Amino acid sequence: MNPLEMMIINESVEDILLFFSLKSSYPSIDSMYVRFNFEVIEKNELWTTYKRLLDEGKLAKDDKGNIIKGPNWKEPEFSRTKKYSNLIE
Prior knowledge:
By secondary structure, the protein is mostly helical.
């Protein structure tokens, strides 16, 4: 299993969105779930979590519509602890 697949399967949807939304578009993140954890897409969990994070101020949009850290953003634990760093070169 590659590191990306491990993250998508083992980490919460919220944490994945908080981490990847700053670097990747929503369609790119959606594609990761289609490939590695389709159940999240089937249940509409990805979209509802994404909207909730925007509503809660954990994610925000800049004046160009790009996703940025919101005032309530907190770094996901797997990122803070570098859980997957030994797997990613």
